[in-house]
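Please fill in the sequence for the structure shown.

STRUCTURE ENCODING:
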């Protein structure tokens, strides 16, 4: 550990407990205790500090990096609050070691989500500065024109900001493919609502170099080649 200490969110990320973003949420919710005191944002931990999360003592240990590709069904909630949130992803997958989802999919959205114990890589995948591509298949409630899709690709004003330019391709009268490099809250649904369309189904089929290739509700471990390609793409 660095001589001057290390920010607690970075520390929990590096030991594979959770991503930095998730650690920040735990701090905000008052769920992290350091040396019997509630942690605050930006707090730096030292080598001998005793850390508890939800009453559980956190111990640093060297573990092999794990990456899992899950085809998330509708109804599963992307949260690490196992045993608290009904239908949460951790209880659903029942993996033998501690893992956490990289980002999230809405409860009604299906498809590819990655889970890992590598907080540093998870943080890089989530950072929009890396322009990491995520590909989705979208079906809307009525026929959508090429003109609307072109306007959608050029950016739409939602949640107080304009979305980045993106790739959009029409597949059928009511279906299209969209590739994003950012992840605003309910972004695709809001983009469709902007043009008075309602999303009927939404499935993520790719995250960077990882494609959805397992049946709904099933998962697989990424192989060494996939992990190497993934981490190399994040070296910017």
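FILLED IN BY: designer on duty
SEQUENCE:
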């Amino acid at each position: 550990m660095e001589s001057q200490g290390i920010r607690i969110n970075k520390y929990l990320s590096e030991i594979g407990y959770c991503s930095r973003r998730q650690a920040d949420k735990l701090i905000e919710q008052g769920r992290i205790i350091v040396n019997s005191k509630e942690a605050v944002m930006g707090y730096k931990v030292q080598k001998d500090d005793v850390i508890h999360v939800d009453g559980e003592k956190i111990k640093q240990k060297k573990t092999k990096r794990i990456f899992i590709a899950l085809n998330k069904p509708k109804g599963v909630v992307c949260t690490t609050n196992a045993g608290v949130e009904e239908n949460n992803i951790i209880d659903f997958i029942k993996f033998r070691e501690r893992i956490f989802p990289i980002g999230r999919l809405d409860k009604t959205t299906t498809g590819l989500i990655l889970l890992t114990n590598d907080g540093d890589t998870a943080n890089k995948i989530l950072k929009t500065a890396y322009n990491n591509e995520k590909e989705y298949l979208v079906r809307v409630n009525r026929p959508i024109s090429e003109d609307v899709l072109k306007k959608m690709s050029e950016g739409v004003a939602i949640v107080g900001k304009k979305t980045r330019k993106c790739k959009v391709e029409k597949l059928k009268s009511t279906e299209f493919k969209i590739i994003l490099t950012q992840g605003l809250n309910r972004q695709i649904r809001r983009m469709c609502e902007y043009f008075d369309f309602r999303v009927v189904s939404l499935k993520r089929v790719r995250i960077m170099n990882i494609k959805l290739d397992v049946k709904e509700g099933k998962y697989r471990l990424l192989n060494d080649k996939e992990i190497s390609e993934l981490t190399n793409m994040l070296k910017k």
